[in-house]
Amino acid sequence: MQYNLLMKKCIELAKQAEGLTSPNPLVGCVILDKDGNEISTGYHRKYGDNHAERDALLKLHNGEETGGTLIVNLEPCSHYGKTPPCADLIIERGIKKVVIGMQDVNPIVAGNGIRKLKNAGIEVVENVLEDECKILNEVFIKNMTKNEVFVALKTATTLDGKIATSNGSSKWITSSKARNEVKKIRNRYDAILTTSSTILADNPTMAHRKKIILDRELKTNLEAPIYKDGEIYLFNASLDMFEGGINFIKTPVINEKLDLEFILKKAFDLGIKSILVESGGHLNGEILKYSDKIYHFIAPKITGDNSSLSCFDFRHIENINESCNFKITNQEMFGSDILLTYYPISK
How far is the C-alpha of 289 from the C-alpha of 223, rounded, in Å? Predict the structure, then answer.
């Protein structure tokens, strides 16, 4: 029996909780009875709630699942956390086959759930749509394997790579459909990050539960719209305190710029597992070497003006072979605009 379509369904179920499960992974589950009929689905709805397997199994009664098959995009857990081990419940409920998308990278699990299932006589099918399952939980994988925050970058440009004219005019480069997609993208990440330059130029709201603002000289008005909601972490060169609902974090300065390595490490230490950067060309360029993923919206417009502001403006090179290289993995249309999603090849 081919399980690809059912694994795709697990992935789609899991995506319903994007932005809600951190620091846990996104997980969906489908259960078939012994005759191969789908009888239950579930997903991990938010951090602290039942895991996907438990969510799906607890919807069933009278041994409907006995002798059946459970499909899940991530190896069932084998340890006690916020909830009891899913592997134990699967064994108790008489499941005979478990189909898994990928092994858990959490060292506490890392194959232990699979071994527990096999030791109980359950047939385990592994690595079904493994690549897709890894993309789904790319944040969790980096957090667990590197103990680092996952950094994504979003930019919106004209066809000639401009984010604004020379006087800062940028509203709106992209269509309302593209901007609505940006709101959905933001919700996938624990925090959004921007700079004082962007705030002073655009006065954005950037509604989100957590915001990281880089303001070395504390130039921004703390009454600006961006400070009106969410937890605020303001990285600067002089203050280290909590006041007026804002976490001021004193940050080392390197070459008259705030130390990005310090900022990203501090964010991870604060429990922020993923960041979406929305800023101007200078920070976009500087943070490229730390970025894991780029969302690049392109509008069918050309400024034709060399003095217009570029989306990545951070260095001068002589040789084209010094370029940063990326792999484009997805293209989508939103109204008249295209969204390219790409990853650094060197990472």
Answer: 33
